[in-house]
Amino acid sequence: MAELSYREAVARGIAQEMDRDERVFLIGEDVAGAGGVFKTTVGLLDRFGPRRVVDTPISEQAILGAAMGAAMTGLRPIAEIMFSDFFAVAWDIVVNEIAKARYMTNGQVEVPLVIRSANGGGARFGAQHSQSVENWAMAVPGLKVVAPSTPADVVGLLAASVRDPDPVLFFEHKSLYASKAEVPDGEILDELGTAKIVRPGADLTIVALALMVPRALEAAEILAGEGIDAEVIDVRSLIPLDTATILGSVEKTSRLFTVEENPRVLGWGAEIVSIAVDEAFWHLDAPIVRITTPHVPLPSSGGLEDETIPSVERIVAEVKKGLV
Amino acid sequence: MNPLERLRARRAAEDAGEDPSMTTPEAAMGRMDKPYGAHDPTLPPPVDSTLDQAPIPLEHRLRMYELQQEIRQVETQLHRLFVMGLVQGTSHLYTGMEATAAAFGTLLRSDDYSFATYRGHGHTLARGASMKGLIGEMLGRESGLLGGKGGSMHLTSVEHGMLGSYAIIGAHLCIANGAAWSARYRGTDQVAVAFFGDGTTNIGAFHEALNFAAVYDLPVVFVCENNLYMEYTPIGQITAVEHPAADRAPAYGLESIVVDGNDADAVYLTARDALEKARSGGGPSLIETLTYRHGGHSRADPGTYRPSAEVEAWKDRDPIPLYHQRLLRIGVDESTLTGIQTSVAERVDEATEDAKAAAKPDPSVIFTDVYADGGYQWRN
Ligand SMILES: Cc1ncc(C[n+]2csc(CCOP(=O)(O)OP(=O)(O)O)c2C)c(N)n1
Ligand SMILES: [Mg+2]
Questions:
Q1: How close does chain B come to A262, measured CA to CA in Å?
Q2: Does A204 lie in the same domain as A307?
Q3: Which CATH number characterizes residue A298's domain?
Q4: Is the beta carbon of B231 within 6 A of some atom in ligand 1?
Q5: Are A133 and A258 members of one domain?
Q6: Are B68 and B267 in contact (CB under 8 A)?
Q7: What are the start-end ranges of the H helices in B244-288?
Q8: Predicted confidence (pLDDT) per residue in B108-136, tens digit
């Protein structure tokens, strides 16, 4: 066991997979010499050399296209999109090409790659460098979508993503990069499509993702002080989605809350709510509540941004309101 | 005149009530009046008769003849099947442009990679993919190359090195880079080739891909098949330079290469050099082949926006009769060529019958191959 930051966990996960599999390489803007603009890839160039850790031009389509072509022909690329907002300039490659190649070719082509990206708000970067876009990706058949909340999950889910035969969009939360936690020694390999009950509870279920997980946990502690026992689930993987764990929890607690950083309309929580209504309706004792960023672009100023993204206080308040 | 001045002049002429259809060769020339190499860009280049003596093995020449015949006859058949209402969806025929795919198809090694566009029937056949599979796909049958799940615009045959047809302009140049990257990373001397149109040179992905390939010296060959039109718009009207690909090459440290795309031997010689360069570590090339489609952009398009004199001039420069005459001049018997034509025709007929008789895809395939486990499950 060693304490590791979330950002160090990224480098550790990549290194673990590059050590294991010669086919794995890393490309992206400033990932090599600079070790990443978020310092998530520090040390990898020294360790693996310029053949496998490559700085690219500012060419998101060329980066993702190269990753796709390499994946189609036997390699296991890890490509970085510096800020997830920048997916928009290469969305064609992701949505029209990477996601659909296997289906359109009747299974002739496979695209086993990972695209990592710094997602989410909290850094006062404004509306073009702060978005949570995991729900864009979730809407596209053919992609897998992962968003870890802890350093250990970063390593294990990154390893699972690299070894997965399907294309995986791996959303790292930029406001979690500095967070630290114990990470087991040795190889870590997790499993995609598995949610985790990170706090068991009897009274209600809070489903959260990425930065919203620590906030939901903190909210649960405050609620516990008021005698309310919340169960918190870290979704971890939107596609595949572990609905069994979520529905199992709802059957137990009969109350469901989602905490989403993405803007409200068609956020991933809406899908979970729809599934819960379809499949756990008779277990529910109260209306389901979605706690989300409102349907606005993110403002930059600290106070405004904090008001916009679900906060611990808002989670507590919404849960208490929803419990009546 | 630069292209923008030319465009303004043309609009002024139209405003003045002059006939904008420009049905005379002089008018067509006036549209792009700057010499295009040695000739007018909208008219075919003169035939280079010295190519008769080009050092090309006879078996390669016969293969190029056969491939051009295959592509032409399949496209002609597909047009017929379309008129009969049997072809599903849209299609973009390669008729008139066969020489480029035939030359590359002849030269590419079986482990090289091809990437084409929605106008990719020819590039797919040229890699040796089955006619039955191609026609079956066009008819939406289970026997199709993609089992009826991709259609005309996405023809792929991985076992033949045909890594796909891409229908969003520009993307596949970037993807071809990745295949080239992979070849070098794995220590092979495979080459990737991306075919695309003149219109594609104006999208960002083209420029990203060219710079990327040049920066990393990738073993990739970019082939711009300049058929003078981006859908319905003359390329000269919407492009800031005369040669949409070749004039951009120097910006990426590459040589400007323009070649007669209606002469398979001309394409062959250029392709051979570019492939050899890529294979031996010399990096990428960008080739512009001058050609013309005989029909409209897609099956819905009669192509009436093109001056008839221009169309006629290019039809007179059909790559197939040109090649037929060349082969006769260098001593190939007419009967050999007729034999090739006939055997291709028989195979086209057989493939057509096969496709017509093939089953429609079972609805269960709607749910297959979204993910690697073979299915589409996204939740438990
Ligand atoms: C990004 C994008 N924009 C527009 C289109 C629609 N479109 C399909 S083909 C085409 C023209 C392409 O012209 P060119 O590159 O010259 O190829 P050609 O069809 O002449 O072979 C256009 C605009 C598209 N498929 N993708
Ligand atoms: Mg064109």
A1: 20
A2: yes
A3: 3.40.50.920
A4: yes
A5: no
A6: no
A7: 264-279
A8: 999 999 999 999 999 999 999 999 999 99
